[in-house]
Amino acid sequence: MEDKRGEYTLSLVNREMLQINGVNNVVSYDEAEILIQTVLGVLVVKGEGLHITNLNLEDGKLAVEGYINKLEYQEDKGAKLRDKSKGIFSKLIR
């Protein structure tokens, strides 16, 4: 069975060049923070002097230059709540 999400790769070189495959959208960006919707969830990139040097949403590719301080994946809180509510509901049905 083929994975519908596509391939996801992340490459960081010397904390100055970030390349990502598997990008669906760039939610927001400025010189200090970029929010990226990837096939595996939302990725937050924080740093200084961040610039998007290449963005091709058709191919799902993104390149960022600047000094990168932090890479963080945000949890999908909606999915967690849905899973939790399913658990509670299934317990009530038993």
Write up what this structure looks like.
The protein is built from 1 helix and 6 strands; from the N terminus they run ββββββα. The chain has a single domain (9-93), classed as Immunoglobulin-like, CATH 2.60.40.2000. The protein has one helix at residues 77-93; strands at 9-13, 17-21, 23-29, 33-38, 41-56, 61-74. 18% of the residues lie in helices and 56% in strands. The chain is of the alpha+beta class and 94 residues long.
Report the radius of gyration as a whole number of Å: 17 Å
| Percentage of residues in strands | over 45%
CATH 2nd-level architecture: Sandwich
Biggest sheet strand line-up = 1-2-6-5-4-3
Helix and strand run:
EEEEEEH
CATH topology: Immunoglobulin-like
**Largest β sheet strand count, sense and barrel closure:** 6 strands, antiparallel
Mean pLDDT: 84
Could you give the topology of this structure?
Blueprint: E1 9-13, E2 17-21, E3 23-29, E4 33-38, E5 41-56, E6 61-74, H1 77-93
Antiparallel strand pairs: 1-2, 2-6, 3-4, 4-5, 5-6
